[in-house]
Amino acid sequence: MTDPGPGLPGKPISELVSDPNFPNSAVGQKVDIKGNIGVVVEVVKNSIKVRSAEGKTMSYNFHALRKLYGPRIAPAETTVEPAPASAPASPPPAKRDVILEPNFNSPLVPIESLVRRPDFPRCALGLFIDLHGFAGVMIELVGRSLKVRSREGSTHSYNAEGLRKVYGNLSPKGATVKA
To answer: Which residue ranges make up each domain of the chain?
Structure first.
């Protein structure tokens, strides 16, 4: 295909993509796509083929060209209603059960005996728990996580479902399993 207008600059791609018949309307037109000037020689599937004066052919996805160089569609303006004179009060924060004074003198309860209970993890709140390598009082339940504070003051978090999986099939120390 010959160059329609040798020596003339190509049309900016933004002018061509605004045509409702683009990409078919661009065939035969001299185009400038980010400094790459050439003639649109054909449309193949989702691409336009642009041949430069040197004979090099480049393919461009015409959907991407529309998105990048097409006219900007302004978002529809929404009418914002003015806020009432007094904003409604925010709901009070959810009640949290927190043990402020952990009792480390209570009997040590093995985690295996708690994870099988239907009310686990809530049943462990305030209990001095043996977690095999860490012992402490469950001071708070945050979602499905148990916060356990040791006698030394360090706090560890444990996922309730993870504890149930790991310790649910073990028997507590000193207990016998009935067959």
So the answer is: 11-69, 108-167
Domain with residues 11-69, CATH architecture: Roll (2.30)
Domain 108-167 in CATH 2.40.10: no
pLDDT tens digits for 60-83? 998 888 888 887 776 666 666 666
Query: Which structure tokens are listed for 70?
Result: 């097409």
d(CA 16, CA 46) in angstroms, rounded, equals 16
**Cβ–Cβ < 8 Å for 116, 94:** no
pTM score, whole prediction: 0.44
CA dihedral of 19, 25, 30, 36, whole degrees rounded to 10 = 70
State whether residue 154 is helix, strand or coil: coil
